[in-house]
Amino acid sequence: MSKPVVLVVSGPNLNLLGQRQPDVYGRATLEDHLDRARAAAARLGLVVEHLQSNHEGDLIEAVHGARGRAAALVVNAGALTHTSWSLHDALAAFDGVVIELHLSNPAAREPFRHTSVVAPVAHGSIAGFGGLGYELAVEAVARLLAGGEGGPPTGSGAAGEASVADGRTPPGAGAPTEKGTRT
Ligand code: DQA
Asked: Does domain 5-146 have CATH number 3.40.50.9100?
């Protein structure tokens, strides 16, 4: 049986990690972070795929392409985190686990970073742990897929879509459900 796919989606400027504001984002490259995610995935019986783009539409297409194919998305949308309602809507239509990820802790930075349009359509957010976050995100995916930690999306959304109005079910807030089912 093939392993569940975790698609890591990386937004604008993350291709410059390692060179870009190392005081904020560190010296590790995106590839270094992906290696950590891949190692965690191998340990947990998952497989990581990755897409980085500096273009909003590419990220949306990647989320669409993951529908029905990937079990989970780990999304570091870069600055689109704070602005992209189109990405928000695409994620809302993804019927699987969604983890928001940031290297830095946006809540401790400039005010414009304090709003995330990804957060309302994510199961949870991991921020401020640098490259460790990539491991933690894959671990969170594995545990949510295994059930017992709140489970994958539930809510009152239309069939095939997670509920935006109600948000994703937070870990521990509800009975585990089979992936893709609705309560
Ligand atoms: C970031 C935080 C965003 O505010 C910023 O625009 C980024 C990176 C992070 O990983 O800390 O590009 O998503």
From this structure: yes
